[in-house]
Amino acid sequence: MNRIHVTYELPGTLTETQVQALVRAGNRCKVHNTIENHPEFIVSTTSLASRS
Asked: By its UniProt entry, which InterPro entries does this protein fall under (predicted)?
């Protein structure tokens, strides 16, 4: 994955200040930040038998 494009469909009644605030909020969202910071993924297994 090399690009995710997000487009917000907004009502025409928002001011430019409100639109920019929404863009800033989108840029600070947890999903955006997680993807941008390239987390390490670790896959492991466990057995239900080992839990008893």
From this structure: KH_dom-like_a/b (IPR015946), OsmC/Ohrsf (IPR036102)
Distance between CA atoms of 31 and 34, rounded to whole angstroms?
Answer: 5
- For 42, half-sphere exposure in the C-beta direction (CA atoms, 13 angstrom radius) is 2
- Rounded to the nearest angstrom, the gap between the alpha carbon of residue 42 and the centroid of all alpha carbons in its chain is 19
Report yes or no on 10 lying in a domain: yes
1-52 tens-digit pLDDT: 677 788 888 888 989 999 999 888 888 887 777 777 677 878 888 887 766 5
Residue 26 sits in which domain range? 1-39
